Structures are given as C-alpha cells and as structure tokens.
Amino acid sequence: MTEEKHCLFTIFGATGDLAKRKLYPSLFRLYKKKEKQKHFAVIGTARRPWTDDFYRQVVIESISELVENNEEQAIYFASHFYYQSHDAKDTEHYITLKKLGEKLKKTYQTNGNQIFYLAMAPHFFGSIVSHLKSQRILTKKGFERLIIEKPFGSNLKTATILNKEITKSFPEKDIFRIDHYLGKEMIQNISAVRFGNLVFEALWNKEYINNVQITFAESIGVEERAEYYETSGALRDMVQNHILQVLSLLAMEAPKRFEEKEIRQEKIKALQAIRQYSEEEALKNFIPGQYAAGDFDGEHFLGYCEEQGVAENSTTETFVAGKFFIDNERWQGVPFYVRTGKRLTEKGTRINIIFKKVLENLFDEQSNSMASPNVLTIYIQPTEGFSLLLNGKEVGKGFKLAPLKLQYRHDATILSNSAEAYEKLILDVLNGKRANFSHWDEVARSWELIDVIRNAWDNNLKEIPKYKVHTMGPYEALELLKENGCHWEWKPDEWYIQRGKL
Ligand code: BG6
C-alpha cells in the first residue's frame, strides 16, 4: 500500500471553477487510490461567506461522478474540508487562517506539511504569499510548497516582479508552477517515444527531419473568460507556456539521466537556442488571427468581437501560427511550426514530425509515383497514441507506391485507469517531484521570446486577420509554411471545405 503523505492543503480560490472542476475531483481520486486517507485536511478560502457544511456540499457535488454508490466514502472525504471566508489583502484574515490551520494540523496530524494552492486572479499572488510569511503561517516544521496557476506574469517584466515577490517567501525548489499540459499522459510520453526508440532517436535531427508541427486546436470560443482573454490572447495564453514547453521536450538533447535536474537543464538549453527574433522577423514569422462570425453545420456562431465582455473593436488574437528556429547543431535550419486557436475545426492537440523524402529518382520512372515523406504523429488529445506514415507498394500489377499508416491508440481500459493531469501533478507536489512543472528559468526565457512577438504586433499591426469559425485559421497561416515548401500536415477543415460545408 502507498504510504500516506500527511498534509494540510490551503486552496485560495476555493469557490472557483478550477477548484470545482479539477482540484476536488483530483484530490478525491488520490484519496480513493489511498495516496491520502486520514492525515489530510483542506482549508478552502475565497471571498464568499460560505459555511463548512455548504462548502462540503459543493465538494461532494464536484466529485459526484466519481462516487460510485459509496456515499459514505464521499461524506468522509468531504468532512476533511473546512471553509474560511477570506480577503486576500486583509492581514486580519491571515490571523484567522493561521488559527484554523494550527487546529487542523493537530486534529489530522499533518506533521507540519503544508501545500498552498493559488487558484485565483494573479494580482493577488504577491499579497497572499507575502502574508503567508509575515503572519508566520509558514513555520518550516514540515515541507511547505506553493502551487501557482498561470498566468505567471504578462511579460518578462511583470513575471520577474512576481517571481521576486514569491521567492521572498518560498525558495525555487518549493515553487510548483502549473502547466497542466505537463501532466498529460502523451506529453510525458514524448520522451519515451524519442529516447526509447533508436529508430527515432537516430533520426531526430536536421539530417532527417524536414520540419516539426505542433498544433493545439480548440473548437470552443472564448466562453466566459473574456475578461482574462482580452488581456492575454492566444500568444500569452497558449504559446508562452504549453507550446514552448512541448517544443523544448521535442527539441532538447538527451539528458544524462532521466532525472528532474538533468531534464530541466536540457529543456532550458533548448529554449535558449531558439532564435531570438527582431520585431521585423517576428512580424514575418508569426501570424495572429481572430475568429469572425459565421455559420457551421446549421448553427450560427458569434465572432470574437461580439462575445460578451469583449470590446467591439478588440484586436486580441484568438489564433496564432508561427515559425521558430533552433540555432544549434541538431536543428539548424529546421522550422518548428506552431499554431493554436479557438473556434477551429475541432479540438485536437497533436505533433507531426515530418521526415525528409527519400531520393525520388529511384521510383519515379517505373512507377510514376513519388514516395511521400514519413510522418510520425503524436496524438495528445482527445485521442492518445501514435501513428507513422510509411510508403509501401500498391497491391497488384506494376510498381506503384502507396502510403500506409501504422497506428497505435490507447485503448479505453488504459485510459480510464490513467490518472488525470491535475491528479498526477498534485501527487507530484506531495512527493516533491518537480520535473513536470515550469522552472523560473524556463518561464523567463519563454517570456523573452514571446515579448518580441507581442511588441511587434502591438507596434505594427493596424488590423488583425480574421478567419471563419471552424476553419484552421486565416489564409496567412497557410502562406507561412509555403515559403519553406511545407504545408500543414493536419487539415481537418479540408473534409468540410470539399463538401461545401465551410
Ligand atoms: C488553458 C487555456 O491553459 O488551456 C485555455 O487558458 C485553454 O484557454 C486550455 O482552453 C486548454 O486546455 P485543455 O486541457 O482543455 O486542452
């Protein structure tokens, strides 16, 4: 049996969507897997004046799908939750919080271990963390770890200020910056595919790879998050964190050992080697887009500027496509294309590694057919798995090449038993494992790269290219690849376009 990690959790933002959708279910899953049993308690804080009973009811509702007729278990689990109404900027409130924490530490024998989860608006982060120290809620009696949700700043300058603030109270080794993609099964699988298979690792370089494509597509619009999204846009929301993290995992050199420190060093080196564009280069290599109103499948969809909470003439990008280069021995000259957006054709996160073509002449004359490039695809979500596109001979007379695809998709049993991203990440924090979190050096370097693109757009773009809902972005995003003789490998909109549905 797993040994239980004793711990008191304090969640700031306990009434919020993230807490209900992700944190309580994840804590419950860990409880069911006996990672936590008796010696844990959770203090939920937020502004609203809830009672413990009401809070526990909310927790029970949020885990209802996982309860499986064992209501007693759910009630026992929820009995470990306590609510404290809280104004993050009011010192008095931290005194009450401290008292409650001390009581719970004794009741549940949490050995002084504490985890603080900041699941709320980032402008409170600094104030909360400094109060934790000044009000001596941090006692150094056990481990004391901070989990912090994104956004971590809005550019290098604000991120640095925030980082200075929080490192006054927590050393880097105790700060766990969440990038929930790093908890996803298939992202963790990137390294297994690369380093566990000589057939790929031997070819993982500029000699054999033509280009790499990373797509994070969403079919949803901005939903209720306009207030945040208006200040962020797709570049800050997805590229600065998730996409650059994935890119660094794909591009890094093999770590000496598959350990946190060694992996991190290699990821940072890869990020450092990404070409730092001038504003002019950034304008050429990064394309923003914004979804316009339109119809799809008999339904009308609002344009971004018509969504609630969005300024009528907003130029916030809901889409970005771009090209990075990595200036090192392994990758010189290989474009890494990235794209992400809302209201695209479908939800899908995938990586395509496009290999170089074989010498065409060999088959040309007799077969009148050309070998297609091999493509390794890593499917992150909604399906998980890999495929490899190869060339074979078409069955029958003559000699004609035909593409064939080897596929592996995780089956349903594996998927239902596998841990959710947040569950894995919370368990990592309990165990003090930091490999799946963003280190400050990674965050800082990512902002450096992103700031130039942001500034280039802010200083130069008068208009933002629009795209039709349910397409894969503006026309300019296709042009971006053409100049290198490439095209997007994944074109889910083509099926609809060919049938006149788009
Ligand atoms: C978040 C972004 O980090 O990731 C959202 O803020 C986005 O805008 C979400 O929708 C996508 O995550 P997932 O796990 O649903 O692919």
What does this protein look like?
A 9-stranded mixed sheet has the order 16-15-14-13-7-12-11-8-17, sandwiched between helices. Strands 3-2-1-4-5-6 form a 6-stranded parallel sheet. Strands 9-10 form a two-stranded antiparallel ribbon. It has helices spanning 17-32, 52-62, 71-78, 91-108, 125-134, 156-167, 185-196, 198-201, 226-251, 260-273, 279-285, 361-367, 412-417, 421-430, 440-460, 476-482, 493-498, and strands at residues 7-12, 40-46, 81-85, 114-118, 144-148, 175-177, 209-217, 286-292, 294-296, 299-301, 319-324, 336-341, 348-355, 375-381, 385-393, 401-409, 466-468. With 502 residues, the protein is an alpha/beta fold. It binds 6-O-phosphono-beta-D-glucopyranose. 6-O-phosphono-beta-D-glucopyranose binds at residues 180, 218, 237.
Topology summary:
Blueprint: E1 7-12, H1 17-32, E2 40-46, H2 52-62, H3 71-78, E3 81-85, H4 91-108, E4 114-118, H5 125-134, E5 144-148, H6 156-167, E6 175-177, H7 185-196, H8 198-201, E7 209-217, H9 226-251, H10 260-273, H11 279-285, E8 286-292, E9 294-296, E10 299-301, E11 319-324, E12 336-341, E13 348-355, H12 361-367, E14 375-381, E15 385-393, E16 401-409, H13 412-417, H14 421-430, H15 440-460, E17 466-468, H16 476-482, H17 493-498
Parallel strand pairs: 1-2, 1-4, 2-3, 4-5, 5-6, 7-12, 8-17
Antiparallel strand pairs: 7-13, 8-11, 9-10, 11-12, 13-14, 14-15, 15-16
